[in-house]
Every structure is written in structure tokens, then in C-alpha cells.
Design a protein that fits this description.
alpha+beta; 3 helices; elongated; binds zinc ion
């Protein structure tokens, strides 16, 4: 049988839907653990490459394709954007995506629309783009080691959370003296 598929059926996030038989209403639960791909997350916080992503999925055949509903759980590693302290966290996401059958589409008309539509390739679907979008959306824009991380001392770079009473007797840069004066005036 000749296949035009680009997807690798052995890839960790590629699922085979053949057993659903394209019968609307037929469904299957899938639980799997797969190694995280690179760049699953944002620059400052992401799922470590090859660490396990736990997936809990329901695949359901509908009229136009296969509806995938599920959730994913994974570890996160990154660093605080204020003080650069390493962050270890976890992320839970849920998602739902309809993968259209590729032989029922009107290829010409679809090409003109956005390519946000997920397509099956034969019986295979690739969960990775959907997972990636869900994870990125779930992450904080600016991850912090703690909600009120005071960051680093602007004068010497010390991590202020480690040293709350941190202070310098004399400003190193004379510009800071001017700022201090302004603050006094406002009080
Ligand atoms: Zn911090
Ligand atoms: Zn300092």
C-alpha cells in the first residue's frame, strides 16, 4: 500500500486512529507517557527534553474527523525572571482538538483559510502541536520563584530574597542618591 503520510507512526505523539473505523460515535481511551520534545514551553520555563509527559486522552470519531479530548501532565524547569533562581514546577493542561479526515476536505478551499485546522494524515494524527499550544498557554509570562520575589539588588546583584535586610550604606552610583531624594519628597 502506498502511503503519502509524512507522520512517523512511531513518533511519541503520533496516534493511530484506525481502530475507530471512522464510525461516528466509536471512541477509545488512551493513556500514555511520552518523552517531551524540545522547546515544549517558553524560553524561561519549559518541560525538560525527554522528561515524561503523561497523557490521558479520549479519541472519538465524529462525522468529519476524530475529536481528541484530553489532558497532559509534565514537569517544568526554568528560572525566575527577577532573580534567576532555578524554578522546578509542574504543569497540567487540558485540550480538545478536532482532526479532520484529509480525504474529505476540499483541498483548494482549505488552502485559502488559515492553517489552524488540524488534519489527520491517513489514520494518523499528531498531538504535538496541540500539546505545545496548550502548554505554552498555561505557562506564566514571567515565571517567578515566589509571587513577591524582590529580585536582585540593583547595586551589587545580590538575591534580595536571601537577604531581606540587604542595604548599602552609600549609594555606589550618585544617580541613586538623587532618586532617594525624590522618594523622600513624596513621603
Ligand atoms: Zn526570584
Ligand atoms: Zn546590594
Amino acid at each position: 500500500m502506498i502511503s503519502l503520510n509524512n507522520l512517523d507512526p512511531r513518533a511519541p505523539f503520533v496516534l493511530d486512529t484506525r481502530d475507530l473505523g471512522r464510525r461516528p460515535g466509536s471512541q477509545r481511551e488512551v493513556t500514555l507517557s511520552a518523552p517531551a520534545p524540545a522547546d515544549l514551553g517558553i524560553e524561561v520555563l519549559s518541560v525538560p527534553v525527554d522528561s515524561p509527559v503523561e497523557l490521558d486522552l479520549r479519541l472519538e470519531a465524529v462525522m468529519d474527523g476524530v475529536l481528541v479530548t484530553g489532558g497532559a501532565h509534565a514537569a517544568l524547569a526554568g528560572e525566575c525572571v527577577r532573580c534567576l533562581e532555578p524554578i522546578a514546577d509542574e504543569v497540567d493542561v487540558t485540550f480538545q482538538e478536532l482532526y479532520m479526515y484529509d480525504d474529505t476536505r476540499d483541498a483548494a478551499s482549505l488552502d485559502d483559510e488559515d492553517d489552524d485546522i488540524s488534519m489527520l494524515e491517513g489514520d494518523l494524527l499528531d498531538l504535538e502541536p496541540v500539546l505545545r499550544d496548550a502548554v505554552v498557554l498555561a505557562l506564566p509570562f514571567q515565571p517567578l520563584c515566589q509571587d513577591d520575589c524582590p529580585g536582585l539588588c540593583p547595586e551589587c546583584g545580590a538575591r534580595l530574597a536571601d537577604d531581606p535586610d540587604h542595604s548599602h550604606d552609600e549609594p555606589i552610583d550618585p544617580r541613586w542618591a538623587g532618586l532617594a531624594g525624590l522618594n523622600d519628597g513624596q513621603d
